[in-house]
Each structure stands twice: as C-alpha cells, then as structure tokens.
Amino acid sequence: MNHLSGMDASFLHLETPEMPMHVGSLMVLDLPEGYVGDFYENVKTHVGKRLHLAKVFQRKLALMPFELANPVWVDDEDLDIDHHIRHLIVPRPGTREQLERLVSRLHSPLLDRSRPLWEMVVIEGLATGQVAVYTKVHHAAIDGQAGVALAAALLDLSAEPRVVKPPRPRRQLNRYQLGVAELATAALGNTVRQYVKLVQTLPTTLRAARSVLLPVDEATGKRRLALPKGWKLAPRTPINVAITNQRSFATRALPLATLKQLAKASNTSLNDVVMAICAGALRRYLAEYDCKPDKPLVAGVPVSLREQGNQDMTNQVSFIMVSLATHIKDPLERLRAIHASANTGKRVTGQVKGAIPMDFPSFGAPWLMSGLASLYGRSRLADKIPPVANVVISNVPGPQAPLYLAGAKIATYSPVSIPAHGMALNITVQSYNGTIEIGLTACRRAMPDVGDLGDYMIDAAHELAKSIAAAAATAEAPPAAAPPAPKEAPAKTAKAASKPAAAKKAPAAPAKTRRTTPVRAQRARPATPKTPTASPALAATTKKPARRRTAATGA
Fold first, then answer.
1. Disulfide-capable partner of 393 in 176, 219, 299, 473 (CB 3.0 to 4.6 Å)?
2. Start and end of every O-acyltransferase WSD1 C-terminal domain (predicted)?
3. Is 52 a catalytic residue?
4. Which of 22, 139, 421, 462 is catalytic?
5. Among the ranges 143-147, 203-207, 384-388, 496-500, which has the highest mean pLDDT value?
6. Distance between terminal CA atoms of the chain?
C-alpha cells in the first residue's frame, strides 16, 4: 500500500469531466526497412515484457471510505493489457491533420480509475507509411520529468530492443480491493504522519512566506507587506473561459540548435526564447479577434522542484508567473522583457523552494476539493473573474538521441497536455533528437483553429531571429565619421564688426561610410544566429494574411 502525496492526489480531486487531468504524447515512427509484421501485436508483446520496469503500469487506486482522505496505490493482480493497448486506423488519406484530430478525440475522455491509469493506442493508415503511437497517463502518477523516465523504461537506443530481465514471481493475494477497516486504519496513520511533517516544516515555511510577502524595503531597510515582485492579474482574452471536455490539438517543430543560437546571441535562456515565440504567436492570433489587451499576457510556467537524479514517479513541481510582454512590438525587446520577468519569478521560487510542501494533510480534502472544482466549472466563474494566467507554457527537456519502440525509430515525439478552466490553451514543448517538438492542446470550442497558432509560432521564430540578427549587425557597424569641430573665430575689430557678415560657407559633407550588411555581419561573427527553419518533419508552412475573426461564444 502506497499513499498518494497531497500534490499527486490534488490532480485527482481537481479532475472533472470537462477538465481531465491526464498528460500524453504522440510518437510518429518509421518502420524498419521491409517490415511485414503486425506492429500492434509487436508493441503489446514489447510493453508486456517491461511492465515491471515502472510501477505506474501495474498499480491502481484504492479509494478511502467516504473519500475522507487521499486514496492509496495498490497492485493490480489482473491487468488486462488488451484494454490498455488498443489499435486504430486513420481514415484515408491519412494526413497529419487527420491524425491530430484523432488524438484530440482520444485525449478527451477520462481514464478508468478502476484500472491502472494509463492507455496506449497504436495508429496505422498514415499516408506517409509511418505508424503513430498515442499514450496518456494520469498526472497523479507522473509529472513531466517522471514521464521522460517512464519513456526510458519502454524505449531503446537502437533498433534491436535491449534484453530485459523478467520480473520475479509475486505472491498473489487474490483481492480486487482492500477492506474498509484496512483502508480506514491506513488513512488515519497517514494523516497523523502528515500533520507531524507539517509541524516540523512549519518554521521553514513561515520564514519563506515572510521573505516573499514581507520583503525588505531597500529605501527604509524595513519590511512591508507586498505582493511578490512583478505579480499582477492577467488581462481577459477569448481563450480565458470555462472549458468543455472537447479538445483540439496541433503539433509543430523547430530546430533546437537554432533556438539555442538565438538564446546565446541575446544573452537569454532557451526557455525565454520559447516563451518569446509563444508571445509573438499569441499576439498575432488574438489581434485577429480584435483582442489587443493593454496589459501584457501572463504565462503560468511549471518549474520542477525535482533534485538531480531523482526519478520517483511523483509530482515535484511548482508554478511561476511570467509576463509575455505582448504589449511590446519589437520581438527582441519583448524577449528581453520576458527574460527579466522570468528571472524575477525564479528568484521568488528559489526563496521558497525548500518550503513548498509536496505532501500535506488530506483529511476531508477529496470531497471538498472535488466539490469546489465541479462548482467552479459548472458556474462558469472563469468567464467572469480575471485570470491569474492566460496560458500554460511548459518546457520539458528530453533525450537528444534517436529512440526506438519495438524496433521502429521515433521520428517525432510531441507532447499532449491539459487545458484548464480559465486557461483554454496549454503549450508544451519537448526537446527530442535535436528538435523542439511543440504540442498545442486546447478546448475545441474556445480554440478550434489551434493549428493557426502553430503556424504563427513558426513565423514568430523567424521574426525573432531577424530581429536579433539586425541588432547584432547594427552593433557591429562602424559609426559614421563626425564632421570636424568648428574652429574658434578670431576676435574682430570694431570696424570689421560694422561690416555686414559674409555668408557662411556650408560645412563639408561627412565622408560616406560603407554600410555593413547583415550578411557580412553574420560572416564576421559565426555565433550570430541564422534565421530558423522548420523541422523537416513539418510540412512547409506558408504565411497567412491576418484576418479578422469572431470570438467563439462559450468554451
């Protein structure tokens, strides 16, 4: 019996039919040369041999009586792999857009809580001859970095799957669920331990809260009550509404090396560049709906609290709020403003990191949190109150080498994530094998055209690269020659002064300087980034003219 932490269980309690709390991925794979087998059956066999490598595959929830405390994980002794791994075929002609629509439908329904909280779907019929695999796992079981570790259990570094030692035989208890008395006793013991832990960490938590909410005034040297620096409510937009369970989904990709070059040339980070690209795309997308907020959009950015080397299948994450500076027109200036805002958020998180509880007392929390979450969604309060953030933007570092599943090479590896009430769009990016894979997951009624936003992200990356290159070229260009300083005139006699002044001779024009072009500036400095190009995995995207849209009613 393994108790869920307060952080893990909150993803269960906040889940509603309109707001499923599972995350996923879409892998597109290249089959081996001359492959003639049944890939679906191969995947079932491959995964079946590795279920014991990650606990999430073989454990399910046992709910507490009357939901008075968080549930516990128990082993599923009768796992039905045919339920968890399924097979579908995309209708003809099998385009990428059809695949994305299918994934959006697969991502909409809730997972069955009576079984282990994961599913996998093998999808065939793509026009390219490739095969796709869609997976989803409940967020109560893993966070983003734990998901990467989970993938490592299933995937290989070569087309030849590694040999995995079979699991040791386990004693079968032949119980579908635990008894009421056993669960109640476990809940009581766990609650006592949580309160003891809370008391032990309370001094650290109070000191951290004091440093954030009562900062020292630099002018007076005294503490004063204030909100965290830079924290402001976000403006209302058409994407900040209550959502339904219907989803829209799109993927795009950008070369990782190019984005790293942009970060280096602008003295920012890769995360900053990703957020700047998202900001440019959102600015253009909302303008088509005549939405031009006076205040900048705000992104909720997950920040991992996981220690180096920690691969526990639990959630260890916090959030910071970052201004997307969408009120700034110039892409480079917008990037610099985002960099400054992100650094402020990181400093605040650094002050409280050790005091953020991952586990906390849960007595009575399940029914209370579930009731509040359902009330918030059904009352459509998200349509009326100012949002804390406009969009979630998450960046998950992934493997930088090609991976294989059941002998097939993974060509693209795109994330699928969670929209929420008040934030109908989630942008998650994941690096894989030299590429930044972008996954755009949204409420279909709020953003049926999420693919357009993906196109605008490609354009925004080009615009940012041009802005950085132009700034670098301007900085390297030699200054124009200044005209010679005028000499002091000799003192004049009274007689000379009485004469009319002669016409002044126009100063000589400054010598023309040879203008340095951006191309030469790039040749002089190899570190200056080139304009990014779309990943080969993407079809060529064409710039679309701006058009005025009508915001969707409802969400």
1. 299
2. 315-464
3. no
4. 139
5. 384-388
6. 40
